[in-house]
Protein 1
Amino acid sequence: MSSKKEDLLVAAEKLFYRHGFHAIGLKAIVQEAGIALMTLYNHFDSKEALILEVLNRREQTYFDLLEQTVKTGSGSVEQELAAAHLTWLKNHASNGCMFLRAKEEFGSEESSIIAQTVKNHKENMLRFFQAHGLSHAEALRLSLLFEGSTALAETTSIQEVEDTLTALVNHLKVS
């Protein structure tokens, strides 16, 4: 990937996450990235295409973190996934879930490719958990805990969110 495309994606993710998708125009993104508007159009046909790539990259980064933590961890799968999710929250999620923010802005119409991308992301998370040995019910419970912790991290100290999520995940294994 070219460095200019990388700069565009980094700037777009930062601005979309901080301000929302509709509030940020392409001119703001190219200004933040320090490139020409024409360069953006050399890499992306539309703002929608840029948003989709930002969401897909964000998903890949998140799943890479989960995967790496599960591979190197020594606790239960749920504990390792929760530790990875907490790392994500500390480093990437002070504004909540970028995917749900996209769904809020673009609606839930079946025809919206962005709404479909959000739906696919949430389904991919369940499949990811199941691929690591969790039943559908266990994956759903863990997903609910992750979604709740992401939302709560917007308004509550990350330490309190961490303590509570860790306690709840540890409780899952006892039940």
Protein 2
Amino acid sequence: MAAQQSLSVADTETGASPADGPGLPAQPGPQPGTPKTSRAGRNLPAAIAVGALLAGMLVTVLLVAPHLWVVVLAVATPIATHEVTRRLREAGYDVPFLPLLLGGQAMVWLSWPFGVAGVLGAFGGTVVVCMVWRLLGQGLSHTPVNYLRDMSATVLLAVWVPLFMSFGALLIYPADGAGRVFCLLASVVCSDVGGYTAGVLFGKHPMAAAISPKKSWEGFAGSLLFGLTGAVLAVTFLLPDKPWWVGLPLGLLLVTVGTLGDLVESQVKRDLGIKDMGTMLPGHGGLMDRLDGLLPAAATTWIVLTVLS
């Protein structure tokens, strides 16, 4: 428990590392021949290369074959679900992966013919199957232990990854679907760049020191400025059927939701005593470490662009 309390999760916005928390001893500087790292403790060249590769892949999909976006999400969903499930199981939670895997695919793919009704129907079915699966996992002759705790974590995971991912799929189906997805990605990227830059250069006032010690209000202001600008420009040039001012509530909500999403994952990782959800992406951690703010932002983008249609 003490080890978990002393662990400070890395924060890319302001360059925090696990050794930067209050009261922790200074760490030795980089040794000759070691990869160059950012202030966040990441392998900076690897992080930039992986980020550029992912961005190039997504842009290519959206420009050449927009509906392949659903395939991308269908592949990402089980990977992210497995990362979180594995970490939860390492911490002693009994989370049923197979129902989450199949239910996640149902949520994403049923969004194609049935829209929101298909997504919510698949989500409800997934939760019911998980409840029964966990109840009967050891047979009728055994009394389940920590059932409420494990089911709470299971439902959280079902919402956090496949349900939010399915709202990302719903964005692509309208005639201007590729533009809607670009609005999501552009706003989130601008927010991340603005938050990181302002946080590193000016960050002095912690936003949530107990959760993410180096996330600052100055960084949030940078996220807000860049995110709003990116959202307004994206709506203006990519969604010509919508007025430019739609970018204002979109940017404001995406910055807020993205920041809160980062804090939620930071707290989850703090509870689990880990730094990253996985190791799949060099310089970034796991896939879920890149999706923490993007997933709730996808649901938010769908809501804003649907309501303000």
